[in-house]
Amino acid sequence: MAQYVAAIDQGTTSTRFMIFDFGGNVIGSHQLEHEQILPQAGWVEHDPVEIWERTRTTIETGLESAKLSGSDLAAVGITNQRETTVVWNPKTGRPWYNAIVWQDTRTDRIASKLDREGKGEVIKRKAGLPPATYFSGGKLQWMLENVDGLKEAAEKGEAIFGTIDTWVLWNMTGGINGGVHATDVTNASRTMLMNLETLDWDDELLGFFGIPRAMLPSIEPSAKPGGYGLTPASGPVGAEVPVAGMLGDQQGATVGQVCFEPGEGKNTYGPGNFFLLNTGNDITPSPSGLLTTVGYQFGDNPAVYCLEGAIAVTGSAIQWLRDQLGLIQDAADTEAMAKRVEDSGGSYFVPAFSGLFAPYWRSDARGVIVGLSRFVNRNHIARATLESICYQTKDVAEAMRKDSGVELEELRVDGGATINDTLMQMQADILGVPVVRPVVAETPALGSAYAAGWAVGFWSNFQEMKDNWNEDKRWNPQWTDQQRTDGYAGWKKAIERTYGWVDVEG
Q1: Most buried residue, 356, 428, 489, 497, by CB count within 10 Å?
Q2: 327-346 residue pLDDT tens
Q3: Cis-peptide into 262, omega within 30 deg
Q4: What Cα–Cα distance (Å) separates residue 120 from each residue in 163, 195, 306?
């Protein structure tokens, strides 16, 4: 009998394959980075072929290093960077263009035109999202309008669309030899094309973007009993195993943090930050700039919805210090540098490289470093970078409190950046509530494993998953109320300085 469930975590900067036992413990893991392609300012792309090759390698190496075979796996789940858009030829398996990444801002004029024409309110009402460069619909429209031959190919069935989960699933289940073309409700809810009430593609929304329905994958539950399809024995898993769970990475983290009750929420620290609050089976509109999104759907059970605050640039700001400025050699350097100074020396860094996401939604914004004096050194800038992650999270927490009426009592956190103890202490100080990290910090993978395992009966109910959650470390606030108030006032002034740097209407 298979004793483990595996998960593919295809993220913005890397792909990870993880193997879990019934207790949610990590049995094996392998991770590889992939290239960030930056053709011009505001454009961010990935090579889908490279992503699939990295996925294959992580699976093969992960199984080998754990001394396991595919037959030891009861199921495989997929979690993924959500809005990143891929179009490929199902007959050849070749992409028509690089994947356009969720951070990419080339569609700013498409988004602003939708607002000018009054279509933005319809998208918000039906899809729960504002028209923004973040989401997939505009990226797919841009491809159809700018990639030679793509529109004609789509009409002939030679071009199909998917977010990264769909691309990985299609390849995992055979590719050109019968690969399954499907997505789940959580990823579909990030496109501006799915109706939150019907959980199906919406013809009016498709018309706004000029997208033919035939390009789109079928929309399935996040956990599908029996699976979406089987991995072929000739594939990287090496055995026929059901791929049975799919969740966008932030919804995967919500499930991995076992936030199954209304009012429970989590914050994930990755290239961006994502704060999700479970609102149950109710679709909750947000007047404060948050997103309304599908949290998960297990089998035929009603979908569970969430309010989400999405922040474009948090951990990737640390990458920017390393790769573009050469200020650090490794992400871990920021912790040691931040400890060398008591504060940021009056400086603030707002990393609005792709505009501002929740709760501001300003595509005209760009990054700024303000409050500089001769006193400020590289250590202050490193600390200001870490503080920017915390302040952006506070922005979202404040908006969530207004919309839900719920006071945050503690923040459950996960993601790669939570290994930075200094960052987590800053977060507790700036929020004014305890910050709690679980034993398994990579919860998107665990959540997709839970979905896949539930679908095949490996875990039979939510309580079995809840029993696996264990606290690793807790940080309590140390700042005074006055420190918190003064620091946040400076941050709000810095936010205002980012506005109007880009003319999004040309």
Answers
A1: 356
A2: 999 889 999 999 999 999 99
A3: no
A4: 22, 14, 20
Is residue 406 over pLDDT 80? no
Strand partners, 268: 274, 414
Residues β-bridged to residue 428 = none
Residue 379 φ/ψ, nearest 5 degrees: -70, -40
Pairing of strands 85-88, 73-80: unpaired
Alpha-carbon gap, residue 308 to 316, rounded angstroms: 19
Closest CA to 394 of 495, 319, 462, 293: 495
298 CA to centre of own chain = 20
| pLDDT score recorded for residue 442 | 82
CB within 8 Å of 207: residues ≥ 6 apart? none
- Identity of residue 391: Y
Say if CB 235 and CB 279 are below 8 A apart. Answer: no
Phi and psi angles of residue 414, each rounded to the nearest 5 degrees, phi first: -155, 175
Query: Phi/psi zone of residue 78: left (φ > 0), alpha (ψ -120 to 50 degrees), beta?
Result: beta
- pLDDT tens, 124-164? 999 999 999 989 999 999 999 999 999 999 999 999 999 99
Kindly report the backbone phi and psi dihedral angles of residue 296, in degrees, each rounded to the nearest multiple of 5, phi listed first.
180, 160
Locate 252 and state its tokens: 């995967």
| Residue-level pLDDT at 506 | 46
Nearest alpha-carbon partner for 313 in 12, 71, 84, 46: 12
Which amino acid is residue 172, in one-letter code? M
In this structure, is the dihedral angle defined by the CA atoms of residues 62, 66, 68 and 72, taken in order, positive or negative?
negative
Rounded mean pLDDT of the chain? Answer: 94
CA neighbours within 13 Å on the CB side: how many for 391? 25
- Which residues 6+ apart lie within 8 Å of 338 measured at CB? 379, 382, 383, 386, 422, 426
DSSP annotation string for 41-100: TT--EE-HHHHHHHHHHHHHHHHHHTT--GGGEEEEEEEE-SS-EEEE-TTT--BSSPEE
Q: Residue 208: how many CA atoms within 13 Å on its side-chain side?
A: 29
Predicted local confidence at residue 292, as pLDDT: 93
In sequence order, what are the beta bridge partners of 298? Answer: 223
CA distance linking residue 385 with residue 420, whole number of Å = 13
pTM: 0.85
Position 416 scores a pLDDT of: 83
Query: Distance between CA atoms of 330 and 91, rounded to whole angstroms?
Result: 42
Say which residues have a Cβ less than 8 Å from residue 474's Cβ, sequence separation at least 6: 434, 435, 436, 437
Cα atoms in the Cβ-side hemisphere of radius 13 Å centred on 447: 32
Q: Is the peptide bond preceding residue 236 cis, with omega within 30 degrees of 0?
A: no
Neighbours of 26 (CB within 10 A): 16
What is the Cα–Cα distance from 51 to 167, expressed in whole angstroms? Answer: 9
For the purposes of burial, counting CB atoms within 10 Å of the CB of 31, is it exposed (0-12), middle (13-18) or buried (19 or more)?
A: middle
